[in-house]
Design goal:
alpha/beta, two-stranded parallel ribbon, 40% helix, 3-stranded mixed β-sheet, 5 strands
């Protein structure tokens, strides 16, 4: 979370949407235990920390079930973010609202009575509760009374869904920041939206 010239050019926020049964979770659990039996000390899958052979096997599972996933990503070029919006209490809730505003009307969710939003824990302990409250308020305004929903903030190690979202976001982040599209090409079939929010001609609201 560095907006100085020393930071990366882009920050990316990504989500996956899936409807039960989550078939990919059993495959990932089996892979995790295969790796444990092979001598790898893996508590959970985290793309930036894994060796490439492990990443390859996780991406292979994501590819296998790509038709069951919807991937959405918001691309933010840091230098275009106004100073007031760079404050964590505004940045996270506002960007998450943009990421999810079209998602909630997805045909994939037609007939679903309740949406469960599960985010990774906000990596700012002292401000976490305030940020999470702002997220709830923003999503509440967006959804109004159109659909029942709940918002939860879990450690990614507790959820294979969050781990898959991490892998997808890592692939998209690599494409935008380093022009390395190898992992991106493995998941691009499942990407529904990849929106650069402050690009010329894009529409954004505060």
């Amino acid at each position: 979370f560095n907006f100085s010239p020393r930071g990366t050019r882009y920050v990316t926020l990504s989500s996956i949407t899936a409807v039960r049964p989550f078939n990919f979770t059993l495959k990932l659990d089996n892979l995790k235990h295969d790796l444990l039996e092979q001598g790898h000390d893996i508590e959970y899958f985290h793309a930036s920390e894994e060796a490439q052979p492990v990443r390859d096997r996780v991406f292979a599972i994501i590819q296998e079930y790509i038709d069951e996933l919807r991937i959405d990503s918001l691309i933010v070029e840091k230098r275009k973010v106004e100073p007031a919006l760079r404050k964590e209490l505004r940045f996270y809730p506002e960007m998450l609202r943009y990421l999810l505003r079209y998602l909630v009307e997805s045909p994939m969710l037609a007939g679903i009575d309740e949406i469960l939003f599960v985010t990774d824990l906000i990596p700012l302990n002292k401000k976490r509760k305030a940020i999470e409250k702002a997220i709830r308020i923003n999503l509440g305004r967006m959804l109004k009374n159109r659909r029942r929903y709940r918002i939860m903030h879990h450690a990614s190690k507790s959820s294979y869904g969050l781990q898959v979202a991490d892998y997808c976001n890592w692939a998209i982040y690599r494409k935008w920041n380093t022009a390395d599209a190898r992992s991106y090409n493995l998941i691009k079939e499942g990407i529904t939206s990849e929106y650069e929010i402050f690009a010329a001609g894009s529409t954004h609201y505060y």
